[in-house]
Amino acid sequence: MSRILVVEDEPYLADLVATALRYEGFETAVAETGAVAMALVRSFDPDLIVLDVMLPDILGTEVCHRIRLAGSQVPVVFLTARDATEDKVGGFTVGGDDYVTKPFSLEELTARIRAVLRRTDRSAPESARVAFADLVVDDDTYEVFRAGRRIDLTPTEFKLLRFLLGNAGKVMSKRQILDHVWEYDFGGNDGVVQTYISYLRRKVDAFDPPLIHTMPRIGYVLRLPVER
Fold first, then answer.
1. Is Transcription tagged as a keyword (predicted)?
2. How far apart are CA 126 and CA 137, in angstroms?
3. Integer Cα distance of 57 and 7 in angstroms
4. From start to end of 109-218, where are the E strands?
5. For residue 141, what pLDDT is reported?
6. Helices 60-69/34-43 angle, 10° precision
C-alpha cells in the first residue's frame, strides 16, 4: 500500500482528495501548511506528495525545494490554479514530477499519481495495463480491449469499467459506484448507474462470455459467468 501525503489548505478539497485516494487503496495523511508537510515527510515517510502550490505559510515550490535539499527524492505532484508555462517550469525546476491544474477530476489526479509512482519505482511493472479474462484496460492511454479488439468508451464509461475491474469479483452497490464514478458530489438518483451499466454492456459484453453481471437488489460485479 503506497502512502500519499496530501498538502492542501482548503479542508474540503484536502478531504475529498484524501478520501478518493483511500478508496483507491492508498494510505493517506493530510497537511494544511508547508511546515506540517515537511514534518510529515519525516514521520509519515510518504511514497508520493500531492502538493498545493499556494499554501498559507510557504509556497509549495519552496516546500519541494527544502525537501530536496534535505535529501528526500519522494515524488511530488503539484496542484495549482496557476497554469502559466513559467509556473510549471518553476515547479519542475525545484524537483516536481508532475503538475495538475485546478479544477481537476479525481480520475485524472489518480491516474497521474499512479503514472508517477510507476516511473519512480524501479520495482513497479512497466506496463500500465490491467487485465481480467480477455478484457484489457490501459490506465495511461485510457484504451480498452476485449478479445484483442479496441473498444471506444466515453470518460464516464471508462471510469465505471475501471472501478468494476479494480474490484473484480466483488459486488459493488449502486451507492458505491455513484460515490466513486461521480466523485462524491452527484445530486441525481442511482438510476444513472443502471443506465451507464447498460451502455457499458453493449460495448464490453458484445463478446462472449459476458463479464458484467447484475446482483438483484444488491449491485453489479465484474466476473466470469458462474458455471452451472
1. yes
2. 14
3. 12
4. 129-132, 135-138, 143-146, 149-151, 172-173, 212-215
5. 83
6. 30
Positions in the chain short of pLDDT 70 = 82-93, 121-127, 183-189, 227-228
Same-domain check for residues 112 and 166: no
Q: Would you state the pLDDT for residue 108?
A: 82
Provide the residue range defining the domain that includes 151.
129-222
Task: Flag whether 227 is in a domain.
Answer: no
Residue with cell 501548511: 33
Backbone CA torsion sign across 142, 146, 152, 158: negative
Dihedral (Cα; 90, 96, 98, 102), 10-degree rounding: -60
What would you measure as the largest C-alpha separation in the chain, in angstroms?
A: 63
Domain total of the chain: 2
Name every residue whose Cβ is closer than 8 Å to that of residue 103 and which is 6 or more positions away in sequence: none
CATH number of the domain bearing residue 105:
3.40.50.2300
The DSSP output letter for 188 is S
pLDDT of residue 219: 93
Phi-psi region of 154 (alpha: psi -120 to 50; beta: other; left: phi over 0): beta
d(CA 210, CA 122): 36
